[in-house]
Design a protein that fits this description.
Strand content: 15-25%
CATH class of the largest domain: Alpha Beta
Structural class: alpha/beta
Largest sheet: 9 strands, mixed
Number of strands: 16
Radius of gyration: 23 Å
CATH architecture of the largest domain: Alpha-Beta Horseshoe
CATH superfamily of the largest domain: tm_1862 like domain
Strand order of the largest sheet: 12-13-11-10-9-8-7-4-14
Number of domains: 2
Helix content: 40-55%
């Protein structure tokens, strides 16, 4: 592994430093070493850097304060100081590599938050675009995209009970197989269903707690994700959906989504269970329509199964079907992306989520890269344009966006949908304006308090730990959700 070592005399802003250096050098393992981390982590002493950068916060702060004094301004404050450091580092790395990043020096996962905040403060679209380009070096196209999505999200958010309501997430951590790029807690489902039965029993206890604790609150959206919820068999799906229906008042739920993401997990019987349970939005996710890539990434379904599953769902009556694709998959070219989009356009889903491949810790993709190199993971502005044009040709508009670490091409994940088919839960989870109660192994509950303060509590990722420690999971939720 080639290492890029950043040495700093301070622990301040090390997350932002790491993220920005990683964006410019995705092929290298970035280590940020401070006096504190160097002493604490002995293995860092063994790292032999192929590239090295030293940052002195003391010197940077002295230089910055001198500039402030000469300009006659007052002290910038911590946030603006961090912004100035990122600008300095961005320009240094950009000069060294000859690269410009589409999102400039922004390293957070929600770049639209800046635009959203400025819109709420009364700024014009033009002023926000100018700010993003000047202060964060965001490209013109991405600045306009961020503002467009923020405007659309504001209108969508008006539909919800942001303070008196909540949304519910239920995680099903089982999959037919684990994909090459996946780091989510998921477990292959085999012939022995004992583990699934035990899991559903524990989940039902958690459902009972929440149904009682939030009996007087309005549920706006319900999302069952994973893993792959349709890895459950039809009887198990019926058990789960009946428990939900009998525990909560779903009469006011605007969106009830189930991830039926793996076509090899979909049957007509399962789809009928979901349809009759009141599910009004599902995802059938090809990721790519290139068979060779599907085999490489560990998805054991065929392109024809994608098409047949989609057609089956339409015949049963589903009127809101999302499809996910991933750009930057191993060996895929712009021509492959075009062929995938042509076939998706022929099917005409109601929404399309375009992911830029993110290389996540804990995924098998890391080992694959070590063996094959980063060169075969190619995402480009052209690939993003192909996807955007395809979505536009189906009458879709961009409505939510987020970013992750180590994304191919340093781009973004973006959701497109027809105007009346937006993924409402997606907007809520991104903008953090409403409490999301999350049940199941590996899920994270986010409580949004009056005034915007957010607190979280996590469930155990390991299924056995989740099942055996359900009393602790419930107590953790009780302390968060019932506090005044």
């Amino acid at each position: 592994m080639d290492f890029f070592v950043v040495k700093s005399d301070s622990t301040e802003y090390i997350y932002d430093i790491h993220a920005l250096v990683s964006a410019f050098y995705p092929e290298r393992e970035v280590k940020v070493i401070t006096p504190e981390t160097h002493v604490r982590n002995r293995e860092l002493k063994e790292v032999t850097p192929h590239m090295e950068l030293s940052i002195s916060m003391e010197k940077f702060r002295c230089t910055l304060n001198r500039k402030i004094y000469e300009s006659g301004k007052v002290s910038l404050g911590r946030k603006k100081e961090k912004d100035q450091l990122k600008l300095f580092l961005y320009e240094l790395l950009s000069t060294d590599t000859g690269k410009k990043l589409p999102w400039g020096d922004l390293t957070g996962i929600r770049p639209t938050k800046i635009a959203m905040t400025m819109l709420e403060e009364g700024s014009t679209k033009e002023a926000i675009c100018e700010y993003l380009q000047k202060e964060h070096l965001v490209s013109t196209g991405k600045a306009k995209l961020g503002v467009e999505i923020a405007e659309r999200e504001r209108k969508i958010l008006n539909r919800f009970h942001l303070e008196g309501g909540y949304s519910l997430y239920i995680g099903i951590p089982f999959c037919p197989t684990t994909c090459l790029y996946c780091s989510f807690p998921s477990y292959p489902v085999g012939g022995d269903r004992t583990g699934v039965t035990d899991y559903l029993g524990a989940l039902e206890r958690e459902i009972d707690y929440l149904a009682e604790a939030y009996r007087n609150k309005k549920m706006d959206t319900l999302y069952i994700g994973g893993g792959t919820p349709t890895a459950l068999d039809a009887e198990e799906l019926f058990r789960l959906t009946e428990k939900i229906k009998n525990s909560f008042d779903l009469s006011g739920v605007m969106e009830y989504t189930v991830e039926a993401g793996r076509p090899d997990s979909i049957t007509e019987e399962k789809l009928r269970v979901l349809y009759h349970a009141g599910v009004n939005r599902i995802s059938i996710n090809p990721q790519t329509m290139k068979q060779e890539t599907l085999k490489l990434i560990g998805r054991h379904h065929t392109v024809e199964q994608v098409k047949s599953s989609y057609e089956m769902a339409r015949q049963i009556g589903f009127q809101n079907i999302n499809m996910d694709v991933i750009l930057g998959l191993p060996g895929e070219t712009e021509e492959d992306v075009s062929r995938t989009m042509e076939q998706i356009c022929h099917m005409r889903p109601d929404s399309l989520t375009v992911h830029s491949l993110a290389v996540k810790k804990g995924s098998r993709m890391q080992k694959w890269i070590e063996e094959n190199g980063m060169a075969s993971l190619q995402n480009s502005e052209k690939c993003m344009e192909i996807a955007a044009e395809a979505a536009g040709s189906m009458g879709m508009k961009p409505y939510y966006l987020y970013r992750q670490k180590h994304m191919s091409g340093n781009f973004e994940n973006i959701g497109y949908a027809a105007e009346d088919k937006y993924g409402l839960y997606n907007v809520l989870i991104m903008e953090e304006k409403q409490t999301i109660a999350a049940l199941g192994a590996g899920s994270i509950t986010k409580r949004v308090f009056s005034g915007g303060r957010i607190e979280r509590c996590e469930n155990a990722k390991d299924i056995t730990t989740y099942i055996c420690n359900m009393d602790e999971m419930i107590e953790r939720k009780r302390k968060l959700l019932e506090q005044l």
